[in-house]
Amino acid sequence: MEDYWIRSVTGDGAVRAMAAVTTATVEQARRRHGTAPTATAALGRTLTAAGLLGATLRVGQTIFVRILGDGPLGGVLATSDAAGTVRGYVANPEVHLPLTSSGKLDVGRAVGRGTLHVTLDLGLRSPYHGSVPLVSGEIAEDMASYLVVSHQTPSVVALGVLVAPTEQVMAAGGVIVQVMPGADERTVSYLEQRAKALPAVTSMISGGNTPEEMVEAALGEMPSQVVERGAVRFRCRCSRRKVQRVLISFGETELREILAEQGRVEVRCNFCAARYLFDEEAVENLISGMRNGNRRTLERGNGETIQSH
Ligand SMILES: [Zn+2]
């Protein structure tokens, strides 16, 4: 099954549900960052949560989810947009802890205590920022707490990543159910009951369940309709050209210092682990481009910066 998300609403509009299968996306993240199993689970759950919330965005809007705990992982970050493009990283990808007493990857201990931050860039002048203290560091509970506290919407969040002994991602995905404002108490308590009986996300996905079936399992007898569906994929927005622009902003002196120390300039993208190498000749080209750019700026005499390419 290809990775994809859906967004559904119940007939009366009282409940909204998002579900996604993200197995290939999380496996892609694992390969790029070389994460060990506990780190894979933490990153995968965070990427999935960002992807699910991304399903509520419009084109041009983005969401950033940051899990900043005092555990060995040292922070997990994921970002997503309306197109289902997700990317993210964990500060310490090598982290793997002993399994919990119930045989699960110990994401809570790897994350530790701290704060969950969500930044919504809706394309307005300033982005919306919300944060809540971490409940357990298991990420799903923390996201649910964020949705209740920041959005006043009682929410069920289930996230799961199943990692094989070979460290490969076997199943990943999640479900978010949100009770919209104005819904009655019975709806809330019915969904709470359903949530308790909901099978683990990883067993649903391993069993071949689709996002549609996951939403059905979460909503039970409440009829719902899929209002939107889209692909999920791990993709970064970095490019050699963007990295060049960053290097130019360093200025000639700093570039020459790096060159003198290391013989080349190497830039690694945090989000996708791509490496960009600039040998001596490439750096010299950048510098001469900067000089030409400066000269053009002076000739124009208008103080505008010209970006060199
Ligand atoms: Zn990148």
From TrEMBL:
Its main location: cytoplasm. It holds the Pfam family HSP33. GO terms for cellular component: cytoplasm. Under oxidizing conditions two disulfide bonds are formed involving the reactive cysteines. Under reducing conditions zinc is bound to the reactive cysteines and the protein is inactive. The keyword Disulfide bond applies. GO terms for biological process: protein refolding. The keyword Membrane does not apply. GO terms for molecular function: protein folding chaperone; unfolded protein binding. Keywords: Chaperone, Cytoplasm, Disulfide bond, Redox-active center, Zinc. CDD domains: Hsp33. It is found in: Cytoplasm. Disulfide bonds join C236-C238, C269-C272. InterPro entries: Heat_shock_Hsp33, Heat_shock_Hsp33_C, Heat_shock_Hsp33_N. Belongs to the HSP33 family. Redox regulated molecular chaperone. Protects both thermally unfolding and oxidatively damaged proteins from irreversible aggregation. Plays an important role in the bacterial defense system toward oxidative stress. HAMAP family: HslO. This is 33 kDa chaperonin. It comes from Candidatus Segetimicrobium genomatis.
